[in-house]
Amino acid sequence: MSRDPASFRSKPIPSSDEANARKAGYRTAVAIDTASALANERCVDVRSIGIAGANHYFTPHNPPYYVSVPGSIPELYLRETVAAKLKSVNVRLAPMGMELFLFDAWRPQAVQRYFHDDWFPRWLQARKPELEGQALIEEVEHYWAAPSAGAGSPSPHSTGGAVDLTLIFTQTRQPLFMGGMFDDVTEDAWTDAFERKPIISMSDAEAQANRRFLYWLMDEAGFANNPTEWWHFSYGDQLWAKLGGHPAAPYGGCAPNGTHDA
User: Fold this and answer.
1) Among all residues, which ones are annotated catalytic?
2) Each residue of 201-232: pLDDT tens digit?
């Protein structure tokens, strides 16, 4: 970790198209290593170890929803190893007066089902009435993974290895400008969106630099990015394994504290 993290602002993000091609089929192509030393690792609410955040789906102050999502929880659970990696990122950020801020972490299946099966299909069909059947499902799953389908195919956020986050200034709590809101479900949310368009304004230049900064900070810490969501990073789940060329994923579905479905 000798590289100055400020230099990440000028390093382009790899192609999301190429990353999307690599991630295809990750929930069927990658095995979960249930014998791994991390397989049964417990989860921790990251706020208890000093990581900032608020569960976006639990609070009603959560555009574009403005309602506490059915089945949501206030906690931000992650596997211990993942939480420790986020703390290491915060150590890198501290001299710059910044830190991570989490929107979501471990996610109950009720929330996954609500968005995959109900909210997002309705949102899409209101704008593209021609979408139906398999075409609609494929469009939904660009941005919302299907709910867990057995022990061998957990949705990423059900593993405790996936996290949605951004960067904030520690003193003011102001988020860095990323050029789009969390949970935007268009190609504007693709991580490389500002690599693929002309940078003609200060806003564009700031968003490009900040997305690069976040991407490479998390990459340095061992995380993989979901290429259709600038905010989504994971470690140890099937998406991480597929994108990184790892032979298996150590994390399957889990139920923090035994209180919620996996």
Assistant:
1) 229
2) 999 999 999 999 999 999 999 999 999 999 99
